[in-house]
Amino acid sequence: MATELRHEPLAGLRVLDLTRVLAGPLCTMMLGDLGADVIKVERPGTGDDTRGWGPPFDDRGESAYFLSTNRNKKSVALDLRAERDQRVIGELMRGADVVVDNFRPGTLEALGIGPDLDARPELIWCTIVGFGPHGRRPGYDVVVQAESGWMAITGEQGGAPMKMGVALADVVAGKDAAIAILGACVARARRGAGARLVVSLAHSAVAALVNVAQNTLVTGRDARRWGNAHANLVPYQLFETADRPIIVAVGSDAQWHACARALGLDDLAGDRALATNAGRIAQRERVIAAMTERLGQRAASEWMVRLVDAGVPAGRVRTVLEALADVDASPLTGVAPSVGGRVRFPPPRLDEHGETIRSQGWGAFASGHDAS
Fold it and tell me: Quick check: 370 pLDDT over 80?
């Protein structure tokens, strides 16, 4: 877990959040974790779409999905088509340092709410879209996973394409947006100018292919599914032990030698043909077969001791409950910030701060409660 940044580096930064669902709310929550004042604008009556994405719901009726990405914000319900509410949004925009939205291109502009950097050249406005600055399709994570190549390389060899267990395209794009905003804040501090930013889920997802994309670019051959194995490293995959699965992830030739010795596979450790990763890839089936047979003979706990003591990267396949036991996490505010900062406010109820925001604008933070 990242070291907590008690000094809140973004303290005083005003962020107007015109987003909903996951990528945008995650971005603005990260800024709020680092100290920014975040006002979340929601639809009257229903609010963020994810308020209804359940069960599960907590004992107050709030969905777990909404709670996961909306701490450290204050909520105001405003109708973007109502003239009175548009005036409130206009006031909030004039006082904001950063505006984040994830409406389809042209939607806000048609309502007269779009960015006007000519009037406010210091403003940073970030739009998160699905398929580029001119795309009209909604940016749904699973669609992006399909079109970005992710599903083509995820799943068992010879099996059907498979999506990730987490809406990771949204998560990656949300983090990309936060990084872009922070970069724009640094540039503004140096030059005084704001920025118009557009982050695309599709582009973020393709960029996140990293070495898989580079393999394809270098070879000209399309990538394929490897299941729990690795295209470039052997051994680097899941193995069944006598009681539960583990991952063994050998990343260097020295680690391979240590791994083979730790498992008692002395014949493989002494085979010069397997001394390099290229050699092990050439004999992938032999290496994996020997390790599979050996690891299946004893419990994961015993193998973990041997592998860790030998300096070999390895880990048990744990459940989500097991993983959460190792971190600071709350049913109300979620997993503690991974980039530093702190939890100051729990996720807001719909329009919880509406009256104060309508009357005081950004002054609502002057008298705000602090969860810590």
Answer: no
The residue whose two tokens read 């970030």 is 126
Strand order in the sheet with 245-249: 236-240, 245-249, 314-316
Torsion sign (Cα): 253, 258, 264, 270: positive
Active-site residue, from 37, 141, 170, 351: 170
Q: What one-letter code names the amino acid at 265?
A: L
CB 120 within 8 A of CB 184: no
* Strand ordering across the sheet containing 124-129: 74-77, 37-42, 14-18, 98-101, 124-129, 195-200
The DSSP letter of residue 348 is P
Distance CA 85, CA 358 (A): 9
Average pLDDT, the chain: 94
pLDDT at 367: 60
What's the pLDDT at 372?
A: 45
280-294 pLDDT per residue, tens:
999 999 999 999 999
Report the alpha-carbon distance of residue 153 to residue 24 in Å, rounded.
26
Return the pLDDT at 4: 52
- Rounded-to-integer distance, Cα 223 and Cα 215, Å: 8
Answer for the pair 1, 30: CB distance below 8 angstroms, yes or no. no
Q: How big is the CA angle at 65 (ends 61 and 67), to the nearest 5 degrees? A: 65
Q: Is the dihedral of CA 61, 66, 68, 72 positive or negative?
A: negative
Q: How far is residue 24's CA from residue 54's CA, in Å, rounded to a whole number?
A: 19
Among this protein's residues, is 222 annotated catalytic?
no
Q: Spell out the residues 6+ positions from residue 299 whose beta carbon is closer than 8 angstroms to its own.
A: 241, 242, 243, 244
Beta-carbon contacts of residue 122 (< 8 Å; ≥ 6 apart): 97, 188, 192, 193, 194
pLDDT (tens digit per residue) in 285-334 = 999 999 999 999 999 999 999 999 999 999 999 999 999 999 999 999 99
How far CA 353 is from CA of 46, 143, 272, 288, 334, in Å, comes to 15, 35, 68, 58, 21
